[in-house]
Amino acid sequence: MQHKIYSFLLPVLATCLLVLTGVSAQSPLIGNWEGTITVERDGEVLSSFKMLLTISSDSLEVQGQSWVWYNEKKAVFSFRGRMEKEVLKIKDIALLEYDKLPSGEWCYKVMELRLSQSRKHAILEGLWTGNTTFSSCQPGRIMLKKIMKRA
Length: 151
Description:
Helix content is about 15%, strand content about 55%.
């Protein structure tokens, strides 16, 4: 009798495990990510700004919004991208809302961010490049940690 119960439970448990691992492999991207975006030259950080990224899709194709703050000014972009292995490749596609800068324009970014896990946080970090309507932007790095909901 016990052998029959185990032979029934084993496939059920295996199916549950597969479903759970499939969900967890995709779900880490959905949500809010906060951190910094830097502008660098020859490995030296020229400036650093606050950044927030919201990802609303957890399939291989992603979409969402990014916020960047330059002092008290901010810009909100929509983006689209794709997860390729552990690298999230995303590109700003529209400037949705922005404060006018004292000089220059906001950069439309192309980002390649590697997904990893520290002891406490999921992390997206990597390089970015970009362009304005009239020139290329000085590239840099992005480092974001996932914001965990608190009860």
